[in-house]
Amino acid sequence: MSEGRLGALCGVDPVVCRGVSAVLERLAGSDVEDAVRGSRVLVSGGAGFLGSWLVDALYALGAERITVVDNLSTGSAENLAHLLGTGRVELVERPVEALEPMKGYDYVIHMAARPSPDDYVEHPVETLLVSSRGTEVMLESARLSDAVFLLTSTSEVYGHAEVIPTPETYWGRVNPVGPRSCYDEGKRYAEALTVAYMRQHGLDVRISRIFNTYGPRLDWRNPGYGRVVVKFVAQALRGEPLTVHGTGRQTRSFLYAADNIEAHLRLLSPRPSLRGAIVNIGSSDEVTILELAELVLRLTGSRAGVVHTPPRPEDPPRRRPDISRARSLLGWEPRTGLEEGLRETIEWMRPRLG
Ligand code: UDP
Hints:
By secondary structure, the protein is of the alpha/beta class. The chain has 14 helices and 13 strands.
């Protein structure tokens, strides 16, 4: 049933179709369905990895008009190609920070960002501007539209957290001038500006703090965009050794994209308890990078092993969210185990590596 609502997606991309269909099934009968149907949505970063998953889901839920603003720096128009001829989805190919605020939306969602450490250390100014000026443009758009505003923030606001699992009440331990500060401090400013608009203008805002997320459409082609899961899968499928930075004993908790998108859609519910909500969205299963590497080698059947490369400067040693707030406030929890999500990702990447 959901396949019809998904338009051409299932024909062009069966793996993403499967993920979005599962999300639609979980949301069936919820207030999110009613709220999104017929709505007008402005999404920055909507051609990117998570942005395009969200746009597919919003389209399937019956959003009337979806305006995507994206400069395609880390995203790709290919992620939206199946939607652009439908008359309901448009792509404005510009940096969000260069736009005038826009009116006429029910939801304004600011997802544009450069979240990959290998990429943002090369583009620290752009990384800060999309979170500073870009957030300002999107918040003004929400204020002029009287829309619900959603900011996708990051676990990086916690920096080198001393409290693991990390709850939303933790204030963070961040180096304001370190190599990661362009991303961390940009997002911390974006959060501060978002709550300032709520306090001063009464705007209905929500903030998600996204922990490591992976899946189809995460950029693996660009060698400067090295998110670990897709980088490892690409290396394994090419028969190259997996590049483990440092000892590989650092940890992350990896969430599959479909689960992430379900949580974001739930955050769009009109329930009053969600006004001003700040919610961690991530997996509570913590693994070391070496364990991840071994799992990718096993699932791809690669025998190339790993090679240890120099550690990244200021690489957070551990990361795992406390997701009890997401469970209670959103009625959400991760459904896709790491092995299952990796199988989906491998199935998606294998033909594309060709
Ligand atoms: N990593 C690695 N090899 C790589 C790329 C990343 O060992 O080729 C490690 C990296 O040092 C970090 C973790 O994988 O500890 C996650 O890196 P990613 O770039 O995906 O995102 P982060 O969580 O650091 O923002």
